[in-house]
From TrEMBL:
It comes from Methanothrix soehngenii (strain ATCC 5969 / DSM 3671 / JCM 10134 / NBRC 103675 / OCM 69 / GP-6). Gene3D superfamilies: YVTN repeat-like/Quinoprotein amine dehydrogenase. It comes from the Archaea. This is Glutamine cyclotransferase. InterPro entries: QCT (IPR007788), Quino_amine_DH_bsu (IPR011044), WD40/YVTN_repeat-like_dom_sf (IPR015943). It holds the Pfam family Glu_cyclase_2. One of its GO terms (molecular function) is glutaminyl-peptide cyclotransferase activity. SUPFAM superfamilies: YVTN repeat-like/Quinoprotein amine dehydrogenase.
Length: 280
């Protein structure tokens, strides 16, 4: 790994990142699973499209795995071996205000804020990290027995995904597993559950690897709505750049603002949902 540390030129770093990401995506499908997009999109579930309210810059080198809003700022976790970080971001400018880097052996995943703590998952290290929200110092860790993908919280629990169709409920104080649910749409399993956000009593989940967000009842696991975000990151705007999938949902409850972005996307969007009334 010593050699890698010396490779700091941007093109080489980017190439290395792409190679690592390609390996990660291939490996990721081994135990987790993709969303069955044909089954998901053919189900009789209410569909929403979107309207872009605001568009902001986003670090195009951020392989976004977790996104959270808190008190006027965004918190973001990024993945990749040797590239993983936790950062505080100014929404308007996309400027990274504070950043801490994880050790090279960790591939960081989702983040959730719980009181004065930030919880950050790792992909295949079976280990979550606990950070002090104010000064971004690591104050603890905990373990779990599955891959770590997305995480969010409701009023009393942490809610975690592992790339399958399951959501897991954790005690926010000792991180112990309290229960789980299976997510379905018209009775069919919905796999590839990735980044999460708890919004007004429902769990919003990015479905890997797609442009869809599922709206899930935390009580039954049923998908009650789906958001089609296809076209939001117009690749015509980003010539000669490789971007990865939609990933990252954050919600500002005080101003009812919904933010989305993706891995290596140069933009972050505030969107409004628009109910799709098209006849099928
Ligand atoms: Ca989130």
């Amino acid at each position: 790994m010593a050699g890698i540390k010396h490779i700091k030129t941007r093109p080489m770093a980017r190439l290395l990142l792409l190679v690592l990401l390609a390996a990660a995506l291939t490996a990721g499908s081994a135990s987790a699973d993709k969303v069955d997009i044909d089954s998901f999109t053919s189900s009789s579930i209410k569909t929403y499209s979107y309207r872009i309210v605001n568009s902001y810059p986003h670090d195009p080198n951020a392989f976004t795995q977790g996104l959270e809003y808190d008190d006027g700022l965004l918190y973001e976790g990024t993945g990749g071996y040797g590239q993983s970080s936790l950062r505080r971001v100014d929404i308007q400018t996309g400027r990274v205000v504070d950043i801490v880097h994880l050790e090279d052996e960790f591939f960081a995943e989702g983040i959730a804020i719980w009181k004065d703590r930030i919880i950050q998952l790792t992909w295949r290290s079976y280990q979550g990290f606990v950070w002090d929200k104010e000064n971004l110092t690591r104050t603890g860790s905990f373990s779990y027995r599955r891959e770590g993908w997305g995480i969010t919280s409701d009023a009393s629990r942490l809610i975690m995904s592992d790339g399958s169709d399951a959501l897991y409920f954790l005690d926010p104080n000792d991180y112990s597993l309290q229960g789980s649910i299976r997510v379905t749409a018209d009775g069919e399993p919905v796999k590839g559950l990735n980044e999460l956000e708890y919004i007004n009593g429902m769990i919003y989940a990015n479905l890997w690897p797609s442009t869809w967000i599922a709206i899930i009842s935390p009580d039954t696991g049923e998908v009650t709505g789906r958001i089609d975000l296809s076209g939001i990151m117009d690749e015509g705007d980003i010539p000669k750049r490789w971007v990865d999938v939609l990933n990252g949902i954050a919600y500002d409850p005080s101003e009812d603002r919904l933010f989305v972005t993706g891995k290596l996307w140069p933009s972050l969007f505030e969107i409004e949902l628009v109910e799709d009334t098209k006849e099928e």
